[in-house]
Design brief:
The chain has about 130 residues and is α+β, with helices and mostly antiparallel strands. The protein has helices spanning about 5-30, 95-130; strands at about 45-55, 60-70, 75, 90. Helix 1 packs antiparallel against helix 2 (about 95-130).
Length: about 130
């Protein structure tokens, strides 16, 4: 494996984790949104990642898609809310802030691992150049 292949693999990981962090941020920002353009409460979204072959053995990662979580939201009694049904209940988004925070920590750690690997590859290349001098 050459330096650029290693960097390409890690760069694919960085792109995937950036997308994952954007989706997590969107989920947190919409944790109280009870009305969307599509109608109804915001639905939590999740990123689907898949491996992508580089050469024959090595692989990277890419975002295969973003899917909506089909689980139902919590129903809360609030008859004063304009989104309440005839019984006075509103359906809240199916976003669990604690779950999102755990996902965010995981994405952050994966991002850090990829940046550390890129730095290590860069340092090895610089050492190789120094040896050649």
């Amino acid at each position: 494996m050459d330096l650029f292949t290693a960097m390409d693999i890690n760069a694919s990981g960085l792109r995937a984790q950036r997308t994952r962090m954007n989706i997590i941020s969107s989920n947190i920002a919409n944790a109280q949104t009870t009305r969307t353009k599509e109608g109804g409460p915001y639905k939590r979204r999740d990123v689907i990642l898949r491996s992508v072959p580089f050469e024959k053995v090595l692989s990277g990662v890419e975002v295969e898609g973003v899917v909506k979580d089909p689980s139902p939201g919590k129903r809360v009694y609030d008859p004063s809310n304009p989104d309440a049904d005839k019984d006075g209940y509103i359906t809240m988004p199916n976003v669990n802030i604690m779950e999102e925070m755990v996902d965010m920590i995981g994405a952050e750690r994966a991002f850090e691992a990829n940046t550390t690997s890129i730095k290590a590859a860069k340092d090895m290349a610089l050492k190789a150049i120094d040896i050649g001098r």
